[in-house]
Design goal:
alpha/beta; 7-stranded mixed sheet; 7 strands; Rossmann fold
């Protein structure tokens, strides 16, 4: 598990584990890393397009039938055409949400674009064949989106880079909380539906 993903999931799992044995739907669960961090009494279900999931489907095609205390969407909404429609659909089934989105305007991504460096996340200007990043949210876009759909309880701003020493990551992660629009590479939000 890469550093940044661990930071995100630790933050989310810590808050879920404080709840009273909630039911959780992990949307875009991937390898289900979150499940390994949760209290065994948490009722965990997963949704993704591949792998051994409770529900095997794309987020666009899935319609939740049950209800969940918590819905987790870590790095999902930048991949879908209409994030508002996805949130509206899942708000019917969930109460508390954890949403993580990349800040595509951090200084590092700005440098990548300035020098023409294309990341693995960029979707080429053509018909979309893969689920790469369609949207490029800024911190203020992420906050506005979450405030539109949720009563925001908490926000965490994260910096990470797997290629630099940990002590620099620690310093930059603290600075990301002070100047998130420039230094945060990821924004994680906890909120309850309006």
């Amino acid at each position: 598990m890469k550093n940044h993903r661990k930071l995100q999931f630790d933050w989310v799992a810590e808050r879920i584990n404080r709840m009273n044995n909630p039911s959780v739907l992990d949307v875009g669960a991937g390898i289900k890393y979150l499940a390994t961090l949760l209290n065994p009494k948490v009722k965990y279900k997963s949704l993704d397009i591949e792998g051994e999931q409770t529900y095997l489907s794309s987020v666009e095609d899935f319609y939740p039938t049950g209800s969940y205390d918590v819905i987790v969407m870590m790095d999902i909404l930048e991949h879908v055409v209409n994030p508002d429609a996805i949130m509206d659909k899942f708000k019917v089934a969930g109460n508390t949400f954890f949403i993580a989105l990349p800040n595509e305007y951090s200084w590092l991504f700005r440098l990548y674009h300035l020098f023409g460096h294309i990341t693995k996340m960029d979707e080429p200007f053509q018909i979309v064949n893969k689920h790469l990043h369609i949207h490029r949210p800024r911190v203020k876009d992420i906050k506005a989106f979450c405030n539109k759909h949720l009563e925001v309880q908490e926000i965490d701003y994260l910096w990470y880079a797997d290629s630099i020493p940990d002590f620099i990551n620690i310093i930059l992660n603290k600075l990301a909380k002070i100047w998130p629009s420039m230094l945060a590479k990821e924004v994680v939000v906890m909120g309850v539906k309006k």
